Amino acid sequence: MPGSAVVHAAVFAAGAVIGGGIAAAVTSRRRVAVPVQTQAPIVEVGAAGHAEIAKHVSAGTLLPPVLKYGNPGPIVDPLIRKAYVAAYDRRLRHPAWTAEHLTLASLGRSRLVPPDESEKGDRGKSTFVEDASLPTKFRSRLTDYARSGYDRGHMVPAADAKFSQEAMDETFLLSNIAPQVGVGFNRHYWAYLEDWCRRLTTNFADVYIFTIPLYLPRLEADGKWRVTHEVIGSPPNVSVPTHFAKVVLTSRPSSPSKPDVLEVSTGAFVLPNAPIPDGAPLESFVVDIEHVERSAGLTLFSDELKSASKHICKTAKCEVIVKRFDDAQKRPEMRRAISSPK
């Protein structure tokens, strides 16, 4: 596994900043209001005054005459689901990013809003399926993952969408999937990073999670940086990311007397798509959000919001609880659960 210093250098070396920003009215530690941007955001302020994932992720523009017979792209397909919003990358055949809004209520853990058991999603009833909403030639296929050596890794975990069967089924669309190393990553450290994200809802009113596959350069023996990655499928179809990023934004009232003045925390973690030791501290994977933005070609949050927010590891305990089921792995009846502990 690459050391954290290599991960930091690789993140810093790649990409360029493009895209829209976050439009959320928040305050800094000094309770100074942050201006709202006018660009199409990933997260915006809803009619009730609460931050929420935008229902639109891109805006159309008028085409110049030279493109009257068609725009070749690149095109990112916006995907609006029950539990998440995503942008699908047709070239790489996996999400460019996914965005979620988690609360105690959305996870069925709120004492004030008890879950509707009749609508609760059952993972056992969900199956991986190709996304029929995408053009056939740009889809990832079930056969691409067969005998590939990689897990079908959820970018939005099924455990984040238990509030209905439809929501859970949508997490099994291959447009929400990217190839991930299984043992030591998708089935272990990455799964419990997802669990850490869910546990943030016990301390924060709103938790926003962005999952971003990355392709980071590596410094080679000749002193040059190169990006190399595998492509699975026959013919080759789905690219295998070298790293994955989790970027979180949390908010809660700064005080009981001022519930509309929010304390906002943010943080970014970049993990290699490789086995990670159980004891690896989560904070060893912390990077600046701007590094992720440059690498992915995204603007997740405005500069004002980033400078006004606290770091998530200052307001929450950045510790992943990894649970191994090595004994259970020897039992055939347990393999299904072990393969996807999300």
From TrEMBL:
Which Pfam families does this one have?
Endonuclease_NS (PF01223)
Range of residues in the leader sequence: none
Q: Which SMART domains does the UniProt record give?
A: Endonuclease_NS (SM00892), NUC (SM00477)
Q: What is the uppermost EC class here?
A: hydrolase
Q: Which domain of life is it from?
A: Eukaryota
Keyword Nuclease among record annotations: yes
Does the keyword section mention Signal? no
Which UniProt keyword terms apply here? Endonuclease, Hydrolase, Magnesium, Metal-binding, Nuclease
Describe the location of the ENPP1-3/EXOG-like endonuclease/phosphodiesterase domain by residue ranges.
Answer: 81-307
Q: What is its EC number?
A: 3.1.30.-
SUPFAM superfamilies in alphabetical order: His-Me finger endonucleases
What the record says about family reads: Belongs to the DNA/RNA non-specific endonuclease family.
Q: What is this protein called?
A: Endonuclease
Q: Which organism is it from?
A: Hohenbuehelia grisea
